[in-house]
UniProtKB/TrEMBL annotation:
Lineage of the species this protein comes from: Bacteria, Pseudomonadati, Pseudomonadota, Betaproteobacteria, Burkholderiales
Superkingdom assignment: Bacteria
Entry keywords, A to Z: Membrane, Transmembrane, Transmembrane helix
Protein name: DMT family protein
InterPro entries: DUF486
Residues annotated as transmembrane: 7-29, 41-64, 76-94, 100-117
Length: 120
């Protein structure tokens, strides 16, 4: 047993989904900065290549997580991670301005987490 598999299932899931999301964000949005001058087909093929690595992490994350969580819980975790990865990416990599709307979106996500994880 290695150090990763000895971690609790939710921690393994969050770590894999976070790493997956970094690849996903670059696949979906990185081309806007780095390949905007290239033909669309080039951007699509590069994005697919990056997305391959996303799937190598996301599929195991969901399989591991589903041992203890519902699909709805996995989806909400994914969305929270997506916003958590996207905001710094947009600000630092794409040089987009920070908006207060990110905070409001994050607060909505807190509500979504509450409703999906509550007992009842």
């Amino acid at each position: 047993m290695n150090a990763f598999t000895s971690l609790p299932v939710p921690v393994q899931t969050v770590l894999l989904l976070t790493a997956s999301n970094v690849f996903m964000t670059f696949a979906w949005y990185g081309h806007l900065k780095t390949l905007s001058h290239k033909p669309l087909l080039v951007a699509v093929l590069v994005s697919w290549g990056i997305a391959f690595f996303e799937y190598l992490l996301m599929v195991p994350a969901n399989r591991i997580g589903h041992a203890e969580m519902s699909v709805a819980q996995l989806k909400i975790i994914q969305e929270v991670i997506t916003l958590s990865v996207f905001v710094p990416f947009a600000f630092f990599y794409l040089r987009e301005p920070l908006k207060l709307d990110y905070l409001w979106a994050g607060l909505c996500m807190v509500g979504a987490v509450y409703f999906i994880f509550r007992r009842g």
